[in-house]
Amino acid sequence: MDVITRFCKIYTDICQISPVDLEGVYADDILFIDPITTHRGIEEVKNYFANLLTQAESCKFDIADIFTCSKQISSRHSNVTHVVNWTMTLVLKDNAKKITLDGSTQLGVRNNFIIYHKDYYDLGEMVYEHVPILGFIIKKIKGKLAK
Question: Fewest beta carbons within 10 Å, which of 12, 31, 34, 133?
């Protein structure tokens, strides 16, 4: 099974995996970036997921598209070989509210392991809009900008 297939399988519902399962997808020297934090190395990524697993009831990704780059897209950290478009559905344990969010991930693959993972999504949509007063303000601002 190639690494992209393994990646898709794990992200079906990341609450159904253990952090050790990540070793079958990510290289030891993985650079993992999302709008909240940056993690360097498999141990940091496993700790990040372990923390997520304590907070989430479920976290499922519906992967819509996987694009293989015909030419590697160079960044200063890695070469992007794949772009994945997805919709995440997250349910936190302390709040039964379902958060649905669209995003994309750039992946760099080498030797059948992911060495580079960078997520792109609207952090406001994921976090800030769900904070009672702040969410109200952000939705008002978005409404005014949309006019």
Answer: 133
